[in-house]
Amino acid sequence: MDVVTWVSAGVALAGAATTAVLGYWQQKRLRTIEKRNLMDSYGASLAWAAFDLQTRLYNVLHGHRLDNSPGTGRGFLTVCLTHGTRHEAEYVRRSTVFVLAEYLGWVEILRRDVQFLDLGRSRTNRRVMTKISEIGSVLGRMSPESNALRLFRTHQRAVGELMVYPDGEPGRRRCLGYAEFCHCLDTDEVFHAWFSRLLTDIDELAADAGPSVPRLEKVQQLLMALIDLLDPKAERFPQFRQVFADEERPRPEGAATPAAAG
């Protein structure tokens, strides 16, 4: 074999190797972009679900403070569940359990499709993962005083799985809506069984939320921290976020407490 043939073979081999390497890195880059696009898309839905859940927790906690402060009126659960109509009471039970379940549903979707453990060196992605884990830990924390709305991690996964729409495809998954959730409660005994204790927990909170306050406050604070990570520029709900920020600041004695979204 002459020199020209050897050189040609070497050039061809080098070219093939370069093409393979470039192809590998291009595919890796495309997979990373695809995962991050999923994180952006699902992250928005997760942020809204987290916001709805923390809003309801805020209303429960703020209502407890009203119930225990003479002359300030009745709290959310007292008005709607204890002294409300049968329909109002049932709405409060179901909608409170729904916002918790919807949040867990979007966490499950992220776990299935994004696989955020492989999202690379993004500091934000790692912090989102950590915050989700912290929320799960507090939701599952046992307390000698009260375990209202407590779900162990495996139960959290089960609830999340039930909330994921069964016909969804990777990248296009969604959670059950409220009407679908209520329909399943009414028509599917197995589905209802996973939520029966949680529905009963709402009545426990209405009777006395005090024992559950420390844990639920921690969950609400962690949810707000998660929202800050998912929506750092406060573009989705800035006016409501200001309400909750004001609530955390010290206020002069006798000053009014801001009202939260319903």
Structural overview:
Helix content is 71%, strand content 0%. The radius of gyration is 24 Å and the shape is globular. The chain is mostly helical and 262 residues long. Mean pLDDT is 79; it is low at 116-120 and 248-261.
Compose a concise summary of this entry.
By secondary structure, the protein is mainly alpha-helical. It is built from nine helices and no strands. It starts with a helix and ends in a 14-residue tail after the last helix.
Topology summary:
Blueprint (H helix, E strand, L loop, with lengths): L2 H65 L8 H7 L3 H29 L8 H17 L13 H11 L14 H10 L1 H19 L5 H18 L7 H11 L14
Helix pairs in contact: 1-3, 1-8, 2-3, 2-7, 3-5, 3-7, 4-8, 6-7
Task: Provide key terms for this protein.
mainly alpha; 9 helices; disordered C terminus; single chain; globular
Share of residues in helices: over 70%
Count of extended strands? 0
Portion of residues in beta strands equals under 5%
Largest sheet: none
- N-to-C SSE string, H for helix and E for strand: HHHHHHHHH
Structural category is: mainly alpha
Give the overall pLDDT as a whole number: 79
So what's the overall shape?
globular
Task: Show unreliable segments.
Answer: 116-120, 248-261
The count of helical stretches stands at 9
